[in-house]
Amino acid sequence: MKNKYSIFSLIKNAFSYHENWQRAWRDPEPKKEYDVIIIGGGGHGLATAYYLAKKHNMSNIAVVEKGWIGGGNTGRNTTIIRSNYLWDASAGLYDHALKIWESLSQELNYNVMFSQRGVMNLAHNLQDVRDLKRRTHANRLNGIDAVYLNTEEVKKFCPIINTSPNIRYPVLGGTLQKRAGTARHDAVAWGYARGADAMGVDIIQNCEVKGIKKNGDSIEGIETTKGFIKTKKIGVVAAGHSSVIASMVDLKLPLESKPLQALVSEPVKPIIDTVIMSNAVHAYISQSDKGELVIGAGTDAYVSYTQRGSHDVVEGTLKAILELYPIFSRMKMLRQWGGIVDICPDASPIISKTHIKGLYFNCGWGTGGFKATPGSGDLFAHTIANDEPHKLNADFNINRFVSGDLVDEHGAAAVAH
Amino acid sequence: MFLINCPYCGERDQSEFTAGGEAHIVRPKQPTELSDDQWAEFLFMRKNIKGVQFERWNHAHGCRKWFNIVRDTSNDKIHAIYKMGDKPPIK
Amino acid sequence: MSENLRITNNKFIDQTTRISFKFDGKTLYGFKGDTLASALLANNIHLVGRSFKYHRPRGIMACGTEEPNAIVQVGKDSSMTEPNTRATEIELYEGLEASSQNCWPSVNFDIGAVNNFFSPLIPAAFYYKTFMWPANFWKLYEYFIRKSAGLGKSPTEPDKDIYDNRYLHCDVLVVGGGVSGIMAAKIAAKNNLNTLLIDDKNTLGGTTLFQQNECFKINNSYSNEWIKNEIKTLYSLKNLTIKTRTSLAAYHNYNYLLARENLTDHLDLKERKNKIRQRLWKIRAKKVIIATGAMERPLVFNNNDRPGIILSSSIKKYIDYYGVKCGQKISLFTNNDSAYETAISLNNSGVVVNSVVDIRDKTNSLIVEQAEKLGIKIHWKSTVVNTNGYKKINSIEIMKLSDDGTSVVEKKIKEECDCLGISGGWTPRVHLFTQSGGKLKYREEDNVFLPEKSELDQISIGSCNGDFELNEVIKNSVYSTNKFLNVNNKDYENLEVTSSKEIDKKNIWLLPSDKPFKKTKSFLDFQNDSTANDVKLALREGFKSIEHVKRYTTTGMATDQGKLSNMHALGIVAETAGVKMGELGTTTFRPPYTPLTFGAIVGRNVGEFFDITRNTPIHEWHVEKKAEFENVGQWKRAWYYPINNENMHEAVQRESKAARDSAGILDASTLGKIDIQGTDASEFLNRVYTNAWSKLEIGKCRYGLMLNEDGMVYDDGVTTRLSENHYLMTTTTGGAANVLSKLEDYLQTEWPELDVYLTSVTDHYGTVSICGPNSKKILSKIIPDLDLSDKEFPHMSFKNAFINDIKCRVMRISFTGEHSYEINIQSSYAKSVWEKCFAAGKEFNITPYGTETMHLLRAEKGFIIAGQDTDGTMTPIDLQMDWIISKKKYDFIGKRSLYRSDTVREDRKQLVGLLTDDPNEILEEGAQIVSETNKQPIEMLGHVTSSYFSPNLNKSIALAVVKNGKKLKGQKMFVPMKNKTINVTITDTVFLDKENKRLNA
C-alpha cells in the first residue's frame, strides 16, 4: 500500500525534509504476457487500466506509452469539464463522467483540483438561441443542471463580458451549467497512474508500439521498442495516433487527426471566475488557479501530426476574445502550443469493439475528450472486461458509421470540427 | 503557416487555401450497388496517414481551383503539387 | 539619493535630461536612456518584488528579457495599466508609474512572507497531496489559492491604444543586431539581397557596444569603437531595413515569423497620442539568419536568491552602459572567465571588487591575468556556501571545494558585500531555432545545446551557435554567412582580432554547501520559487521525464519561461538520475520568445473591424425606417420594422397580417445566387439536387433540395431555367458560400467531364420580393408592359423585363404562400426599384416586413427553413418531402445514404405540425416533446423547431420533429416546461390554405 496523501503526511514528511516520499508509480520492465494491454498512457488509458483493476478484478495489466504519461492531449488541453450535451447518448456518457469527477480526488487520494466554477455557453445569433434553449430543455429532462440565461443574467454571472448590443455579434443569451468547471490536467494522469500502479498495473513509458501480431482474427500481442509482449486483449487509447495503430492491423477508422491549439496569458490576480465558451465567434476562456488566462483556439482543417497549427487560428481566437473581453487587450500571451486531435465525422467518440477479436478502440474524442476521462475509462474498462459495451457507450460503437445512426454533436463544442 | 505553390497562381500563403482531406477517394460510379459497409468506407473511413499523404487543397481565396498536394503530415513538408486529374508525380 | 551610484563619464545615458518617475508611490529620478531597472539601481533600490510561492524578497537579477524577478505593474489607469512587465525592458519616460506585484501591503512588509516560514510544509506539488478533506471544501481552498496566486492585475477597462499588423517579405532576415548579426546584415545587403535586421533593444551593437577592454580589440582599436563604425555603415546601405525595439516573437514553419515592434512604450505619455502602440510584423523570409546571442547563467547555491545577487554580465552592463554601480563593495562568483570582464570594468570605474570566487582550480587566460594585474583577489577552487541579508545581501560565506566538487572543505570565510555578481557560463539562445522545428545537439565541454539540424533555409551564427570568443565569432559568422548566402564578401577578410581565450572550464550544476543539501534553499526558477530540492523530490517520486519534472515542480513555467532555470534543472536531473544531458533532451521551447500582447496579435481587427458586415443594396432604407436587424452569417438583415414603440411581437403581427391581407415587401437580396451555365448544366443539377431537372422548361422555376453525401438535408432554394444551358440557383443566406464551394468541389474533382461554369452573383443583384393579394396590381404599375396573367406568367415561372430601360428578372415564386413576385435587378438599382414598389404599393398599404414575419408566414404554410427545422440529422423523407426525391434518377448526392439501415427506419424523427390546446399559448422553440409526463426518466420524442402566434389563423402554430411523427397525427403530446406542462396535438405541417388557392389569388 502506498502512503496516503494528506496534510498529516505532509507534516510528517516535512520533518525528514521530504526525503521519504514513496514513488508515485514504479518504472517496470515489461513482463512477457499481460491479460490486457492498454496502448496509450494518457488520462483515458490510465483510467481504463485503473478501472479494469479496480472494478473488474484484473491485475495483470500493462499501459504502454511511447513518451511520458499524460504528455499528449491530457497535458495540452484547456481542461473544461461539463455534461450539457444535446443527445441522450452524449448526456448519459458525459454526465456519468461528471459524477465521477465530483469525488475523484477522494477516490484517487490525489487532488485533481476539480473546480465546479460553472461553464457558460454564449449565443450570438437567433439560431444559437434556439439551439441553446433546445439543449437546455433536453438537459433538464435528462437531469442535467443546465439553465438558460438572458443577456442580463450572463452579465451578472460574469461581469467582464462585453454584452453591449453594439458589438458585431452581441451576446443574446447563454446557458450555464454550475456543476461544470475545470480540473488540473496533469494531476488526472498522475492520480490514475498512482492508483493503477498501486493495484499492480505496469506503466511502461518510453515504449512505442511498432506492430500488432494477430492470428486470423484474434490478437496475439504487440511488438514494441522494448520487445514483443504477449496478450489477447488490446485497448487502444492513442488519440491523434489511433489511425496509426489501426493501420497496423489494416483497419481504417472514420478519423482525421488535426492540430488544435491553445494558449495561456501571463498570470494575473483573479479576474474571471468561470469558464465561458462561445460557439459563434470561436472563443473559450477560463483562468487557471495559477492566474493564467487559458484560451482554447480552433482546429486547422488539415491532417497534421506536428503538434503545431497555423498562426491564423490563434489570431482568429484572440480576435474573438478581445471582441468579448476588450479589457484583455494589454494582456500578453505567455505560451502557445498544439495537440493532435482525432475527429469523428459526427463529433462524437468511439468506445467500441472491432471486428478483430480482442481489439478495442477508444478514440475520436476530437476537441473535447478531457472532460470524459473518468467516464471513458470506466466504460472502456467495462467493454474490454465483458467483451461488450456498457449501455452508456452502446451508441458509440464503430458500426454507427455503417448504419448511419450517428450521434451528431456538432453544436456541442466551441470549435467547428 | 505553409507556403503553397498553387499550380495556377504560384506561391501563396496558406491562409488563401482550404484543405479538402485525403485525395484519390473516387466517388463510386454506382453507389446503389454498394453494400452499407462499402458505402461507409467511401463516406467516412480515412487512412489519416502519419507520413506522406496525398491530399486535396483548394485555392479558395484565389483562383478557386482544386488541386492535389503530397505532404508529409509528420513535419508538414510539401513534396509535390499537381493538378486534378494528373498522375501523382511520386509514389 | 543617499549614495552616489552614478559614474559620470558615460556615453549612452543622457545625464543632462533628468526624468522623474514613481515606484511604489515614491517619486524618484533617472536619466534619459535608463531602463526602469537601471534607474532603480541608481537609486539603490534592489528589492522590487516578492516570489510567487514563498514571498521571499527578490531583486533585479538581469538586464534584459531573461529577468525573472523585476516584474512590475506599469501605470495606474484602469484601461492602460499593464501587469507583469520586466523593469529591465522598460525604457524610462516622464510620468512612468510602476509598482511591485505579488505583495501586500507592500514589498517591504509583505504578509505573504509568512509562507516562507511554512516552506518546509509546501514542497513542490504539495497541493496534489492535500486540500482533499473535507471533500466539498476544495472550492474554499481554491478561493484562497487563487487569491494568493497570479502576479499583476489585469486592466479592468477596454484598452485605448491601437495596434497594427503588417506583412513583410524579404530575401534575408537577420535576427539580432550584435556583432555577428551586424556583419551578416552587411554582407547580405551589400550583395543586393533585400535584407531586414531586427533587434529588441533600442540600439544595435549588443554587448560589444560597451566592450572597452584591452583583451578585446579589432584592428587595434577597442571593439566598441570598431562596432560603432560598422553600425554607421549599416545605416547607409540601401537594401537594408533596420528595426530596433523589435522582438522576434515566433518562428513558424516555412520561414514565417512574427516580430513585435514597440512604437510608443518608450515615449513620454503626452507624446503617445494617436500613435500605434505596437505593430506585429508578419514576415516571410526566403532565408533567416539567427544571431540572437547567448544568456549568462546564474549559479545554483544556498540562498542564491537575495536582492543584490545579480548576473555578472548585467552588473557590467549597468556600469559600462548605464553608468550605474550595482553596489559599492561587490563580490563576484563564477565558473568561467566572463566575470573577470565585469571585475575589470568595475575596477576601472572605481568600484571596490572584494574578490572573485572561482570554482576552477586556477587558470591563466589573458583576461584573468589582467584582473590579477589590477590586484583583484581571487578565491580559486572555492564556492559560496551561503549568503546573508534579508532584503538585501550583506555578506557571503566562502569555502574551498573538495577535489571532486561534491563537498566543501577547510575554513569558512565570511566576506561583506552589498552586491554579488554570479556567472555560471553561457546558454546560447536557441529558442527561435527550436521553435522553427530545428533539432539540438549537446556540447559536453561547456554544457550547451547547439543548433544541429533544420529543415528550413536558415542558419545560426555567433554565440547562439556556440561561438563565445570574439575572434571565433567574427571568423565563423563571416564564413557561415558567405556560404549560406552563396556570396563571397571580403569586407572582413583581413581583420586583426585580439581576444582572450578561455582555457579552463568547470561546471557544477548544484554547488555544495556546508549544510546538507536537504537543508539548503538553492533556487532554480526564481519566479516560481522552485529549488534544487524540489527537482530531487520529483525524481524521488518517480517523475523521471524532464517534462514531468518541469510540470511537477513548475520549473521554467513562469513568465520568463525558464530562460535562466532550464539548463540547471536539466543538469540536476541528469546528475541525480545518472543520465547524460544529451540523452535527456530539453523541454520544448514554445512561442512566443517573450510574452506578446494580445492587442498586437489582433491588430486592427477589433470593434467594427472584428468581422466584415455585409449590407444589402437596400440597407439604408431599412435603417431610415428604423428597422431592427438580425445577424445572419455576415449579413445584416431587417428583422422587423417597429412603428410607434411596437415591440417585436406587435410589429410582426401587424406585418404578417398586412402581407396576407393586401401586400408586403421583403428585401431578399441576401439569398445566395449562383449563375450556372454550360451544355451540361441540367445534368449537373440532376446530380446535385434530389429531384429531376432535365425536363424543366425554359422560363420555369423549381424548388430543389440539396443533401450531403450522408443523406442529410444541406440546403434548399428555387432554381430558374433562364435558357437552354443557363440556370440561376438560389441558396439560403447562410449557406451560399458553402454551397458554391461544394458544387465547385464536385464539378472540379468528381465530374470534370461536365461542361458547367459556376459564378456567384449574390452581390450582383438586389432582390425585391412583393407578396400578397395586391402584389400583381403593384407590379403592373411598375412594369406596365408585362403580361401578368396566370396563363402568360404562371406561378413558378420567370420573365425578363425592363424598369426604365434597366433590365431585370422577375420570378413568380412564393415563400409565403401568397401571390408573389421577386424582382432581381443589378444591385445599384435595387434601392430605387424598392422605393418604386413602395410608392406604387402605398394605395394598398404595402408593408415592409422582415425576417421574423417571413419565418412566420412560411411556417403557416409548413415550408421548412434549412438550419432551423433541420439540424444535419434530417433526411427529406424525415421532412415528409418524399415527393422531392426522384425515383427515376440513378444517383444524386446523398442518395445512397438514404438506404442505410438507420435512414430507412420508419420511426425516425419526422417533421410535423403542432397545435397547442390553448390557442394563445406560444411554444418555445427548442422545447422538448414527450408522450408521458409521469415517467422517469422521460423519453424525449422530439423538439419544437419553429413556433409563432399566427395572426391570420388567430392561434399559436408550431413545427416540430417527433419520433415516428408521421404516424402520430392527431395524437396528444406534452411539452414539459420548467414550471408547467403544455398540452399539444400533432397535426399536418400546413396550417393555412392547404389547397394553395392564395398563390393565384
Keywords:
heterotrimer, A: 417 residues, alpha/beta, eight-stranded mixed sheet, 18 strands, 28% helix, disordered C terminus, C: 1001 residues, alpha+beta, Ubiquitin-like (UB roll), FAD/NAD(P)-binding domain, seven-stranded mixed sheet, six-stranded mixed sheet, 22 helices, 21% helix
Notes on the structure:
The complex is a heterotrimer of chains A (about 425), B (about 90) and C (about 1000). Chain A has about 425 residues and is α/β, with parallel strands linked by helices. Helix content of chain A is about 30%, strand content about 25%. In chain A, strands 1, 2, 8, 9, 10, 11, 17 and 18 form an 8-stranded mixed beta sheet that branches. Chain A has an 8-stranded mixed beta sheet with strand order 5-6-4-13-14-15-12-16, sandwiched between helices. Chain A has a two-stranded antiparallel ribbon with strand order 3-7. In chain A, helix 2 (about 45-55) runs parallel beside helix 7 and helix 2 crosses helix 10 (about 375-385). The longest helix of chain A has 16 residues, at about 125-140. The model of chain A is unreliable at about 415 (pLDDT under 50). Chain B has about 90 residues and is mostly beta strands. Chain B has one domain (about 5-85): Folate-binding superfamily (Folate-binding fold, 2-Layer Sandwich). Chain B has one helix at about 35-45; strands spanning about 5, 10-15, 20, 50-60, 65-70, 75-85. In chain B, the strands form 2 sheets. Chain B has a 4-stranded antiparallel beta sheet with strand order 3-4-5-6, with no helix packed on it. In chain B, strands 1-2 form a two-stranded antiparallel sheet. The longest helix of chain B is centred in the middle third of the chain and has 8 residues, at about 35-45. Chain C is elongated. Among the domains of chain C are: about 5-150, 2Fe-2S iron-sulphur cluster binding domain, sarcosine oxidase, alpha subunit, N-terminal domain (Ubiquitin-like (UB roll)), CATH 3.10.20.440; about 160-295 and about 430-490, FAD/NAD(P)-binding domain; about 305-425, FAD/NAD(P)-binding domain; about 520-595, Orthogonal Bundle (Arc Repressor Mutant, subunit A); about 905-1000, Elongation Factor Tu (Ef-tu), domain 3, CATH 2.40.30.110. In chain C, strand 43 and strand 44 (about 820-825) form a beta hairpin. In chain C, helix 4 (about 180-190) runs parallel beside helix 10, helix 6 packs parallel to helix 7 and helix 7 (about 340-350) runs parallel beside helix 8. The chains are: A alpha/beta (about 425), B mainly beta (about 90), C alpha+beta (about 1000). At the A-C interface, helix 1, helix 5, helix 7, helix 9 and strand 16 of A face strand 6, helix 3, helix 11, helix 12 and strand 32 of C. Strand 16 of chain A pairs antiparallel with strand 32 (about 595) of chain C.
